[in-house]
Amino acid sequence: MKLLIVEDDEDYAAALREDLVALDHQVTVADNGRDALLALERDRYDAVILDRMLPQVDGAAVVRLARERGQTLPVLMLSALGRSVEKVDGLEAGADDYVVKPTPASEIEARLRALLRARGWQQQGGEGDTLRAGDIVVSPGQHRAWRNGRALDLAKLEFGLLAELARHAGSYLTRAMLIERVWGYDFEPSTNIVDVQVRSLRRKLCAPGETDPIVTKRSVGYMLRA
Predict the structure, then answer these.
(1) Left if phi > 0, otherwise alpha if psi is -120 to 50, otherwise beta: which for 158?
(2) pLDDT tens-digit profile of 130-139?
(3) Whereabouts does the entry annotate DNA binding, in residue ranges (predicted)?
(4) Are 23 and 105 in contact (CB under 8 A)?
(5) Which end of the chain, N or C, is surrounded by fewer C-beta atoms within 10 Å?
(6) Cα(49)–Cα(124) distance, rounded to whole angstroms?
């Protein structure tokens, strides 16, 4: 998993990072809430391990703001504060789980995997995989997709088209290939149905200020930027 640890205790964060890296995870550390929000905007993570008490922006505010911005990834709140009222506050802010530290890295890993399973996300093999292409994430198992953490409202054909482009991100797919794989036809219709769906998908992928992630190559086809 690609994880973000948000923890202002430098020694604790370093030790937890080391343990999680030893468990074969990619780990980034932020030591305050403001940097955590910036990290979530800049990069894509599978889950966040979030301290409850943080400088600048506290943990409850971080998860609340992240949810308001469309961030859907699992958040495990980790804190020395273990009273029920504090746990309820963290969970109501948008955290998916809450544990009191110190907690072994193996338990944290198990909890994160359980959260991912509960959402229908899998890290290895199968149609339930999370597909990633730049800032776009597609979950075929959930039939859901996001860009920059923003949930995308896609029709069935739009979703199928995006999923197929994401599976082959960085490579061009011809119109004939898309017709076969998305529409299920073994011939290329005389209409421009692929081009129409690509235009519709582009409109939904691009919020103001965002670049078009789909590249068109004349006489070849379409490619989703990796």
Answers:
(1) alpha
(2) 788 888 999 8
(3) 128-226
(4) yes
(5) C
(6) 21
CATH of the domain at 72: 3.40.50.2300
Average predicted confidence (pLDDT) for the chain: 84
| 3-state DSSP percent of the chain in helix, strand and coil, to 5 | 40, 20, 40
pLDDT at 200 over 90: yes
**Sheet of strand 97-100, all strands in order from the earlier edge strand to the far edge:** 26-30, 2-6, 47-51, 75-79, 97-100
| CA-CA-CA-CA dihedral for 182, 185, 190, 195, to nearest 10 | 0
The amino acid that residue 36 corresponds to is A
Cα 158 to chain centroid, rounded? 19
Q: Which secondary structure element, helix H or strand E, spans residue 85, and what is its range?
A: helix 84-93
On whether both 82 and 17 belong to a single domain, the answer is yes
Burial class (CB in 10 A: 0-12, 13-18, 19+), 8: middle
31 and 7 in contact (C-beta within 8 Å)? yes
Nearest to 181 by CA among 152, 128, 221: 221
Cis link prior to 102 (omega < 30° from 0)?
yes
Give residue 185's identity as a one-letter amino acid code: Y
Asked if 76 and 47 count as a contact pair (C-beta separation under 8 A), the reply is yes
Condensed to tens digits (0 to 9), the pLDDT of residues 71-130 reads 778 889 888 766 666 677 778 788 888 888 888 898 999 888 888 776 554 443 334 457
135 assigned to some structural domain: yes
